[in-house]
Amino acid sequence: MTSTINLEGKTLSSTITKLNAPLTQAFDSQLSSELPLAAAPTPTTCNIQAQRLADFNTLTDALEYAASGSTGFNFYDAKGNLRSVLPYRALRQNALISARRLAGLGLARGDRVALIADTTPEFVELFFACRYAGLVPFAMPVPVNLGSHVVYVQQLRGILEGSKASVALANVDYINFLREAAEGVQGLQWVGTPEELGNLPALDVTPQPNHPDEIAYLQFTSGSTRAPRGVIITERALMSNLQGIVRSGLEIRPGDRCASWLPFYHDMGLVGMVMAPMVAQVSVDYLATRDFAIRPLQWLKLISRNRSTVAFSQPFGLKLCTLRVRDSDLEDLDLSCWRAAGVGAEMIRPDTLRNFAEKFAPAGFDARAFLPCYGLAESTLAVTFSKVGEGFKSLQIDAGMLVDRKMAVRLQAEGRKYNEFVNCGRALPGHTVKVVDDAGQEVSDLKLGSVLVNGSSIMTGYFNNPEDTRKTLRPGHWLDTGDLGFLFEGDLYVTGRRIDVIIVNGRNIRAQDIEELAEQQPEVRTREASAFGITDANDATTIVLVIECRLTSVTDRQSLTSRLQRLVYMAFGVNCLVELVPPHTLPRTSSGKLSRFAARQGFIQRTNLTDHQLSVESGDK
Amino acid sequence: MTTDYNNILSRLCFHLKQLASPDVVIVPETDLINELAIDSVKLLSLVMEIEDEFDISVPLNVLADVQTVHDLANLIQHIKSTKQ
Asked: Which residues of B are less than 8 Å from A31 in CB distance?
């Protein structure tokens, strides 16, 4: 069945559409009416092939099969117009052509290719072109913050160096940032736009098949300005995770269709909403992240209009929808088709889900569609899924017991302070989750500890970074997720990050990155800055940066404070509170390291924050 | 050109005032980050209002070079003029 599309009043019949045309996003062609509209998106159901659920050896094998059908990717603009259609058949063709051009650059198998990942057909084509050419692609972020030019270029340079990339590509919007970042980077042989690649000669070579043990891609974990870490995922790990996602997690079936605004440079966007649908021959409708963030209603409209059944979001995205969609918009929405509303990538607060369900119930949203899950790039993407079609379940846990005794005790009496944690479900087949104490010993049900994962989707390690690999992969290939939680009747409940990561508005920010930014200032010495998050009763997190400071003049102090706030903003897009304290105020461990937990306690005491103003940070150790 | 700019500036300031605390005086040199505390969430609302008010589309890549009210007004003028 082909979905009927209302292209907002535009007539379809005479529109001659150049399918797969690159999205022209250059500055001087913003006028949407001048851009070609695509006629119709790829269909939901493909009648000419049997659905195969990720039973392939490699990504390119999967694409070869998907290309025999009629489904594929569709790209929509900020106003909900269909801009580009990329059936899997065309994706394969275009990727093969680009692969021959990449082959002309004379690279070795396994060389890295950096791609700035805007939500465009070209990104996806280049990603698969790399795999056809035996190269290892990875996605780099787009800039999102005001005044972030310098910091963004620095971030790109860090990733280019860390990955030892040989080739880097960006579309016209971002190529200048990329060229600036690429200057002087060793080993980088070619930098350009997809159009420039298109002008290169194509070598007449037949792509060599990939092996399951080869690296499929690198995933750079977000947020960090220095020493970015590239997660190595093999074809085997990838396919194992994709199989878990589409079979056990989502129970993909004929008639499924996805809609996504998730950025292609995040694991949930790339693995979850590009590769997973492709290996199951499912069509996807994309909205650029920026367009979703500004007008979240467009995503819901896409789901409603194209009758999507599967769409994922981080909780923050659901919050944006709840906040920003007007009640008058609800009349035009019919979300009853949405059977799997995946939620993940950050701590899930039950109220976020309840508020969303309440707001969109009149538009046919069924709360049973909520599908909480848990995962991380180091395990390809997914680790646990709750049961599809059953909605979210949660436990109310006595807050005091959790902090004092690291025990999850279910709330017995009314009136006691509690935390409510969402059930993230159980591990995918071939995976095991365990919770351990500080000594690494497995703890019993309902005992709080570090969450460890073992299984077929775990990364090989961080690229060119044995030190971080050693810290993260424990003996027996157990992945230390950095999250805290407990198990109950086989299901995982995540209670928070260990304190080295601060989550603000859905973004993971490493405390260390903020401290390093501060330490780059001439007035700040190493180990004299401590960053942590404070979450208030309304669930809003503020970053606090405490600096030991010798400056005495008010002007100098003010100058340092506002410079730090500005730098943190430019790097992470969030405001922060800077507190200057006398030297030796920050608590240190016996080895001289700063303790962020103790620094946070000290800050709370100095500022007289009461329990009422704080939400219980059960994640703290 | 100048009237155009001044017109854009005053309309822009109207929107910025809704986001800022009441005692802040907004001038072209005002720093959006330090003085108006436009964080990433406020930025989204601001971009939406600008797009609706001026009937333009603001690409993300250009915001990386915007720091002051003047920069933003200039950008809006530039997008508007290239559109015509």
From this structure: 83
Q: Which chain B residues contact residue A148 at CB under 8 A?
A: 63-64
Residue B7 CA, distance from chain mean position: 12
> What is the span of the domain harbouring residue A593?
506-613
**Residue A591: predicted pLDDT:** 59
Is A30 within 8 Å of B57 when comparing Cβ atoms?
yes
DSSP conformation letters of A435-457: EE-TTS-B--TTB-EEEEEEETT
Query: Could you tell me if residue A86 is inside a domain?
Result: yes
SS3 A35: coil
- Taking an 8 Å cut-off on Cβ atoms, the answer to whether A177 and B61 are in contact is yes
Structural domains in chain A (count): 2
Q: Give the closest-approach CA distance of B14 to chain A in angstroms.
A: 19
pLDDT tens string A569-592:
888 888 899 999 988 888 876 556
Q: What domains does chain B contain, in order, with CATH numbers? A: 2-83 (1.10.1200.10)
Inside any domain, residue A475: no
Q: Of B12, B40, B62, B84, which to mutate for an interface test with A (greatest number of A Cβ within 10 Å)?
A: B40
The CATH number for A599's domain is: 3.30.300.30
In a domain, A194, yes or no: yes
Q: State which of A260, A281, A302 marks the end of a domain.
A: A281
Name the pTM for this structure: 0.83
Q: Give the CATH number of the domain where residue A52 resides.
A: 3.40.50.12780
Measured torsion, CA atoms of residues A61, A65, A68, A69, in degrees rounded to the nearest 10: -130
Does residue A264 sit within a domain?
Answer: yes
Q: Of A204-208, A406-410, A487-491, A494-498, which one has max mean pLDDT?
A: A487-491
CA distance A144 to A439: 41
Q: What is the value of ipTM here, to two decimals?
A: 0.83
Question: For A489-518, what is each residue's pLDDT tens digit?
Answer: 999 999 877 767 787 877 778 788 888 889
Q: Are A456 and A379 in contact (CB under 8 A)?
A: no
- How far is it, in rounded angstroms, from Cα A512 to Cα A497? 14
